[in-house]
Design brief:
Blueprint (H helix, E strand, L loop, with lengths): L3 E2 L2 H23 L4 E7 L3 H17 L2 E7 L5 H13 L5 E4 L9 H7 L11 H8 L10 H12 L8 E5 L6 H10 L3 E5 L6 H6 L3 E4 L17 E4 L3 E4 L7 E4 L4 H7 L2 E2 L6 H18 L6
Parallel strand pairs: 1-11, 2-3, 2-4, 5-6, 5-7, 7-8, 8-11
Antiparallel strand pairs: 9-10
Helix pairs in contact: 1-10, 2-10, 6-7, 6-10
Bound molecules: NADP nicotinamide-adenine-dinucleotide phosphate and ligand LUD.
């Protein structure tokens, strides 16, 4: 059996087209143009790439983007001033501070300073708190976790009643994706670096979400035949034959997993494009909440 390929690039393109039509309708009905502010601190190449992709995706669907680029040496106090200005700016409906931040800046302080009404990454402690609780809808659901769920749902994969195993418990992926699966009535196991006999736990998964940041760690014989596998990992490995000198691989050994899994996301072209599509969705949702827009 060869796994069904879950094509994140294609699903994200469909979602972006849906968003584009909705952005146009909002502009015509209420004269509101959704706006996203991206805040990039420092010169990390990967962060620059992701922010550039996010700004371009905004342009394509008619969302205005406001790029704020700051020195890696900026003080925490000055960064807070920049965020406060964006909180006050009525043209900005979403604020994204690209992570990671330089080590001298307290990430928790910064994420907590973003208006909960503009927290399109869903990382504000109030939004994470609501996400964790039954029956409390968060203002925004974090983009990568939301993208994982969309991939499952749009591929017709049943979540309720099935055993979901999440590898990783980070604030930005593992923990929120676990909460989303639980809300959708999966029976949940969350694994981490102290989990004993990881392969055996993974083998019991009907749905596996891998977000550990370890290249190709999940081998083919860890996967239950027919399982749905969502590979969040994005790892650069040296490859002299590649143009850039490296290639991207996931946390799952793709070729091995393909032989036994029921459905599988590739890297690249899986969860990555969905992260960006969900950011656009959250920004549009925020703009729609402006009084008088509905
Ligand atoms: P992270 O903050 O480094 O967290 C990694 C998690 O994996 C931790 O919970 C850690 O356990 C666990 N872990 C690490 N090594 C392990 C091992 N050998 N066995 C079992 N568990 C292990 O990473 P992250 O930010 O969640 O990102 C994870 C991956 O997803 C990275 O490759 C990242 O690039 C990628 N990512 C992709 C997207 C996207 O849009 N596609 C978005 C975000 C991240 P402990 O808690 O015990 O330390
Ligand atoms: N910080 C994110 N830091 C890193 N890959 C992303 C990401 C697109 N505040 C905040 O955007 O949501 C965030 N909010 N993150 N990430 C990772 C994480 C953040 C990662 C990959 C991609 C966003 C993506 O589109 C492409 C793919 O997987 O197909 C490959 C792109 C390439 O480099 O070729």
């Amino acid at each position: 059996m060869t796994a069904q390929l879950i094509d994140g690039t294609a699903i994200a393109a469909t979602i972006r087209a849906e968003i584009q039509a909705e952005v146009e309708a909002l502009r015509e009905a209420a004269g509101i143009v959704p706006g996203l502010a991206t805040v990039l601190v420092g010169q990390r190449k990967d962060s620059q790439t992701y922010v550039r992709m996010k700004k371009r995706a905004c342009e394509e669907v008619g969302i205005a983007s406001f790029g704020v680029e700051l020195s890696a040496e900026i003080s925490e106090a000055d960064l807070l001033v920049e965020i406060e200005a964006l909180n006050e700016n009525p043209d900005v409906h979403g604020i994204l501070v690209q992570l990671p931040l330089p080590a001298h800046i307290d990430e928790e302080q910064i994420l907590g300073s973003i208006s909960v009404h503009k927290d399109v990454d869903g990382f504000h402690p109030v939004n994470i708190g609501r996400l964790a609780m039954k029956g409390r809808a968060p203002g925004f659901v974090p983009c990568t976790p939301r993208g994982c769920i969309e991939l499952l749902e749009r591929s017709g994969i049943e979540i309720a009643g099935r055993h979901a195993v999440v590898l990783g418990r980070s604030n930005i992926v593992g923990l929120p994706v676990a909460m989303l699966l639980l809300h959708r009535n999966a029976t949940l196991t969350v694994c981490h670096s102290r989990t004993a006999d990881l392969p055996a736990v993974v083998r019991s998964a009907d749905i596996l979400v891998a977000a550990v940041g370890q290249p190709e760690m999940v081998r083919g014989d860890w996967i239950k035949p027919g399982a749905a596998v969502i590979d969040v990992g994005i790892n650069a490995v040296d490859d002299a034959s590649a143009e850039r000198g490296y290639r991207l691989v996931g946390d799952v050994h793709f070729e091995e997993a393909q032989a036994g899994a029921g459905a599988l996301t590739p890297v690249p072209g899986g969860v990555g494009p969905m992260t960006i599509a969900m950011l656009l969705r959250n920004t549009l949702d925020s703009a729609r909440r402006v009084p008088g827009s509905a």
